[in-house]
Amino acid sequence: MIVALKTKAYAAMAVKQPLRPFEVTRREPGVHDVLIDIKYCGICHSDLHQSRDEWGGSIFPMVPGHEIVGIVSRIGTSVSKYKVGDRVGVGCMIDSCRECDACREGLEQYCVNSPNWTYNSYEKDGKTPTYGGYSTIIVVDENYVVRIPEGLPMESTAPLLCAGITTYSPLAHWGAGPGKSVAVVGLGGLGHMAVKIASAMGAHVTVLSRSLAKAADGSRLGAEDFYATADAETFKKLAGKFDLIIDTVSADHDLNLHIGLLKRDGAMVLVGVPPESARLRAGSLISGRRTLAGSVIGGIAETQEMLDFCASKNVVADIELIPIEQVNEAYERMLTGDVRYRFVIDCASLA
Ligand code: NAP
Ligand code: ZN
Ligand code: ZN
Description:
The chain is an alpha/beta fold. The protein has eleven helices and 17 strands. The strands form four sheets. Strands 3, 4, 5, 8, 9, 16 and 17 form a seven-stranded mixed beta sheet that branches. Helix 4 (163-173) crosses helix 5 (189-200) and helix 4 (163-173) crosses helix 10. The longest helix is centred in the last third of the chain and has 14 residues, at 300-313. It is globular, with a radius of gyration of 20 Å. The two termini are 25 Å apart. The protein binds NADP nicotinamide-adenine-dinucleotide phosphate and zinc ion (ZN) (2 copies). The site of one zinc ion has 9 residues, from helix 2.
């Protein structure tokens, strides 16, 4: 017998409308699926960009949320990795083609046929919209679910499913570690995770924030140095200093200025996705054989690796736990930089 799995959720019903209560029907778990009772869901700036259609192509109604942690409450008959009661997480993808080179190499985030994103996308059938974690239950194929290591608190682990992996992946790929000088631009949700993770990897970490308002937090999070980008002196003083820059900024800013802070052969990796196009001067790159790169989240295996790394180093996010009713206010506060450093929704408030 097919029983519809109804879940209370919050959705943006159309572009730029405040989120409001909505009901979603999840599919019955298939043989490879797990049904997850969602406990907590982080709020990523990408939720705001997409629910306001700042990148174009948004699908409404939209239930955002891709920093999901919860408990397995039912499993399909062929599920082998998880059992009822397990603590699990779901990040930005709920599936991918599984056949392209990227998928075969465990880089599902670069699936050439596009991953099936957790929301604002479609299920494998290509027509059923996906709905994210601002809800009480979700059904996901076990291969796109990760395990929350013992000892990590669920609510402050939720942001690792996007902010954590999005910063861990480029830090690992570009070799952050002892002897490497890493700058993190923008101290928000991604930025504060980049600082914690780069520091745990053993790198020398510098924060570049618009002002010095969060300077005291910088050292607590693991940074050695903290500079204001609003101060023109910063760009003179730090010229040519960094092996790696992780740019998490969510709005338009001058890339050329920041590239000038790289050493010869250094790399600046964009993870922030401002809606505007950036202007790039070739001179910024060619003087110093510098690289400008980009990176999107991480693969499923790497997400598990990141969680295990964070558990071993006691790294979680600094969060402000909110009931779902405060989600619209949280978006406004995120826009003004008034978040230290990630809002997380207590999904019990949806029940
Ligand atoms: P967030 O918490 O709002 O942090 C963004 C930070 O950017 C702010 O804290 C602020 O840092 C800085 N900033 C904001 N406006 C700025 C401006 N006009 N000029 C200079 N700096 C500014 O956002 P988030 O959740 O960390 O997300 C950051 C970006 O990454 C978003 O664009 C998001 O869509 C993107 N993202 C990408 C991926 C990926 O896979 N590549 C994954 C997740 C998110 P200060 O106050 O310290 O200056
Ligand atoms: Zn995100
Ligand atoms: Zn693929």
